[in-house]
Amino acid sequence: MNGQTAGTASAAVFDPRLAMRARHPGLDLLRALAIVLVVLYHAGLFGFVLPFRMERFGWIGVDLFFVLSGYLIAGQLLSPLAAGKRLDIAQFYARRALRILPAFLAIVAIYVFLPQLREYPRMPPVWKFLTFTQNLGLRGGTAFSHAWSLCIEGQFYLLLPFVVMALARFRRGHLAIPCGIVLGGVILRALLAQRISSSPHPSFGEWQQLIYYPTYARLDPLTIGVSLAAIERFRPDWWSTLMKSARWIWAPGIAAIVVALILAEDGLNVPSSTFDFPLIAFGVATMLVTAVSPELPFSRIPLPGAAFLATIAYSIYLSHKLVIHALQNACSALSVPLISWRCYLCMLAAILLAGSVLFFAIERPFLLLRQRYVRRQRAAGLHRANAARS
User: Fold this and answer.
1) pLDDT greater than 50 at residue 208
2) CB within 10 Å: which end of the chain, N or C, has fewer?
């Protein structure tokens, strides 16, 4: 067994997903960055602030997760089509369910049956979480509100196979549909923002409800992520050009993010509501290109700790607000300022510990089950193929 094979095998013991694919340092780095940004942002909402309130920009971590999901999940569906094979939608849904549902349902159960642990007393009806519709009609200030992004991803997983099959049949829509989705989002958000701003009493809650949380307003990063996956598999010349552009494309990407963050300082205005999300989506998409391009070291050289954070990022995302709230109460009871470095480090360590426990106790066992399921499905497929040839 050579060193690379041994490294892959040892990594697969920790993360079962790596038994069937290699770890990608660049994607690990982006996923780790995304979860750090989200945690810092939410910590700031509960009083764990950074100097100059830098944590307030962490909301873009969710858009980074969306671009990654669009790229990776669409890649799973498009790879068989690129190889001339049929989609196995049942297997796709089974894999997604075993990946997403166990840890998610465990956290939903904690919120439902242990209300004293909630970060806010009020919580949307549990059926909204179970049907992945909690993000619709949502306003901030409710328990487990950060599940809104998981609901969008759940809806995305449900519909994406049918969109892919439709595009495989009607190839002329490959370019028009993604552009139409992004342009439609821009127009719709502009109209909604104009309606909110023209109200005698513009409400941040209404802006959240109509623009920030709904699926129809947050499709830009998912669409761009899917488009990158499609380009990689069906337009290799375009993908090669993107990879070669990685040395400079990060500059306009960072510029787009900076412009969006400046606009977002007043989230209720029409320009911010209209253009922030596509600007952020473009910016983080360029980050993805730089992360996977062989022209840059991110795709080859792992950053210490990034792989571990990337592996448990989903468990951290699910559990971190419970931990932040618990540490907030503990620091208040002990009269320790939330901005003290001891309190802040304890909060981060507790989030890391809780995410690790959730991953090893719930998420990893079901990933092992998914691995066995996929192997059985592949073996059955090979058996059917051999039987058909004989």
Assistant:
1) yes
2) C
Tokens (6 digits) for 180: 């139409």
**Contact between residue 57 and residue 332 where contact means Cβ atoms under 8 Å apart:** no
How would you label 322-352 residue by residue, b for 16+ Cβ within 10 Å and e otherwise?
A: bbbbebbeebeeeeeebeeeebbeebbebbb
Q: What share of the chain is helix, strand, coil (3-state, %, to 5)?
A: 80, 0, 20
Contacts 24+ apart (CB under 8 A), 111-119: 111/143, 111/144, 115/143, 117/322, 117/325, 117/326, 118/143, 118/144, 118/322, 118/325, 119/46, 119/143, 119/321, 119/322, 119/324, 119/325
CA distance 25 to 290: 12
H helix or E strand, kind and range, residue 24: none
The per-residue pLDDT for range 341-384, each reduced to its tens digit, is 889 999 999 999 999 999 999 999 999 999 888 878 766 666 56
CA 314 to the chain's CA centroid: 8
Residues in Cβ contact with 199 at an 8 Å cutoff, skipping those fewer than 6 apart? 206
Mean pLDDT value of segment 78-104:
93
Report the alpha-carbon distance of residue 83 to residue 149 in Å, rounded: 32
- The model's pLDDT over 25-69, given as tens digits with 9 standing for 90+, comes to 999 999 999 999 999 999 999 999 999 999 999 999 999 999 999
CA distance 336 to 348: 16
* Token pair belonging to 182: 């992004």
CB 15 within 8 A of CB 356: no
Lowest mean pLDDT among 15-19, 84-88, 244-248, 339-343: 15-19
Q: Are 286 and 253 in contact (CB under 8 A)?
A: yes
Q: How far apart are CA 127 and CA 280, in angstroms?
A: 31
d(CA 314, CA 219): 20
Q: Report the pLDDT value the prediction gives residue 5, as an integer from 0 to 100.
A: 47
* Contact assessment for residue 91 and residue 381, using Cβ atoms and an 8 Å cutoff: no
- In whole angstroms, give the CA distance from residue 144 to residue 120: 8
Q: How far apart are CA 212 and CA 25, in angstroms?
A: 31
Residues 126-134: contacts with CB under 8 Å, at least 24 apart: 129/104, 132/158
User: CA 332 to CA 329: how far, in whole Å?
Assistant: 5
Amino acid at 319: S
Percent of the chain with pLDDT over 90: 76
Which of 177, 202, 229, 179 lies closest to 73 in space, CA to CA? Answer: 229
